[in-house]
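User: Can you predict the 3D structure for this chain?
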Amino acid sequence: MPIQGITDGTGTVVGQPERDYSQISKIDFMTLLVAQIKNQDPMSPMDNAEFTGQITQFTMLDELETMNAKLDDSILVGQSINNTGMLALVGKDVTVQGDGVTMQEGASSLSYVTCEGVGTATVEVKNSAGQVVATYTAPVNPGMSDISWDGKLENGSVAPDGDYSLEVRVNNSNGEDLPFTPLMTGRVEGLRYENNIGVVVVGGAEYYVSEIYKVS
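Assistant: Here is the predicted structure, written as structure tokens:
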């Protein structure tokens, strides 16, 4: 039963009106309870059931504060563990949504598409100037399909190191366009946190850790 305002024996309220215990501390609670007992009407003292009920409320309040403190500690520990684990991503190759390709020492980074149907991907490779330097096709199956470029130009020579992009189109056996999501592989160059959410830097672009499809 909530503690009412304290009376002076004549029925006049000399304390505060009914309070919300969810907004008070344990010390406030005990102060109010002791004051009510001291100022109660001797002709109508608090009965045992009422006193027991208020002590029970105090116990519940104490347990709730303890639980909240432990929960806060657990959240902080969990965030610390997650942040430490995400640091291990720096320097790793990850697969994220995008159409970029990097040529380095004669080898190109991997590229994929996710699609729900069976079809063929037609891929145009463009250099940083937007010029098409290679064209090829790759089979596509439901799920994730590898459509990586072999790093060769139209004349068969190896493309110079640098950044390229893929323009992809996926068609089924009837020539109809199939919806797909382009994926690229790149190295994690950095990591930062945004509202305790990990953000990785790949190829100069930022991605949430939750957007990573695969870690190599």
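The mean pLDDT is 78. The longest helix spans residues 48-87.
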